[in-house]
Amino acid sequence: MDSSQALSMTNAYGNRDIEKQTKPSKGVVEMGERFAYYGVAGNLIMYLTTVLGQPTATAAKNVNIWRGVSSIFPLFGAFVADSYLGRFKTILLSTIIYLMGLILLTLSVTKIPFQHCQTVFFLALYILSVGEGGHKPCVQTFAADQFDEDLPEEKAAKSSFFNWWYLGIVVGATTAILVVIYVQDYVGWGIGFGMLAVVVAAALGLFLVGKGSYRREVPVGSPFTRVAQVLVAAARKWRVSETRESYGVWFDDSNSEDVGGGPKVGTLARTNQFRFLDKAMIIDETDKSSKTRDPWRLCSVNQVEEVKLILRLVPIWLTCLMFAVVIAQLSTYFTKQGSTMVRTIGSSHFQVPAASIQVSTGLTILIAVPLYDRLFVPISRNITGHPTGITMLQRMGIGMFLSILTMVVSALVEAKRVKIATYHGLINSPKAIVPISIWWLLPQYILCGLSDVFTIVGLQELFYDQMPEGMRSMGAAAHISIVGMGSFLAALLYRSCRSLAQSLAMSGLAIILIGHVLIAFIGCWQG
After folding, report:
1. Model pTM above 0.85
2. How far apart are CA 421 and CA 410, in angstroms?
3. Which domains does the chain have, with CATH numbers?
């Protein structure tokens, strides 16, 4: 098939024009954005405390609020992309906004007078959040859209795509942690933030080079309207029976006004789950006698089944929240553990920054993803006969088990740390260095990386594959929101642990142990 051939495709959301093309390198855009994000987020608390002079508690609160807002905005960005602008235009606009935020961030630390720089700095941070909101849910979905699912070889390649896409994200994040944070601390904040702006500008340029060959979807209005129509129609016909009072069900998903017709090509198969929604597709006496179809009273089989697809993802979203709580420990309490441990390498006096050990998680992912794609998948495919070796849900289940194991190991290490602190009389000295090596934390960081490889990539693929085609950006935003909600839940959980520890007159060090044991217990119960 000619790569420039235009294809006209019709789905449940109406007609859309898609240009068939060879695969572009849109992963560079995502790597650049992740590089910039972690270049800001990874060392933000140090800038707030050392340059702006904020107390640690205030700085931590500001960082958490910014990260929370950055996790919420993708929901709005995805809605705009699916409903109005389309993914390509949303990516382009949001990347420009992101670049503007980075430029303003650089100016705030180099050119703005100190008495005004804090206001400008925070304004730039939240401009980045707006750019993140449009960019994050669309880039991966837009890249996956370039695969033609009508071609067996491209459909099979899509599962591998999600593995390598996540690998690219980790490369960008790990490089930022290793390079940008060093430049910010030892060369200058202006140069550090300026590097990020240059990288995003270069990524935007590469993205625009291939703009003429991208497969694009035309937005067709709010997909939430279609969901609401099914719910309202099912409620209005709650007494109607398909066997006694109906003239069949409505199959046609076009804009035809005539009521009737049989199954159309591409119609989703009817399922037995959430059967109360099936009433929305039943043609009753009122529908039959009407000259035009009322979309708030009669919906197609496709439309009803799409709503069922969304509802099936809700339990998975809820189940993965505790996994996100575990991930939230990487930059918070795992780092807190390391800050009170011996951080020297061998007999040298060089101190490893407590936060730098997070690199071990990134390195684990960099090694594990190629092994998974090139070794695990072929072996498991020969055993199970499944094209991807194991199903998406099985992959996520393995990852969640590994996250439970992560917290079990973390709790055991913390118990050892508390025991040593008690033995040396340091239990009530939270700032004291406990004589135990920070390298005891490596197993939990490595396990966390392995759980990411299985769960995060599985979530990305599942929420793309199972969402209705017109809501795939929303699917990406939904799986991103899991991580954001996990951060909020982690804060709530540890606040409860702190209250419990204080009521029982326990030491501050024991709070972390309680939290780790509790997370592991909830994870086991949920699994």
Report:
1. no
2. 16
3. 20-220 (1.20.1250.20), 223-254+264-299 (no CATH), 312-526 (1.20.1250.20)
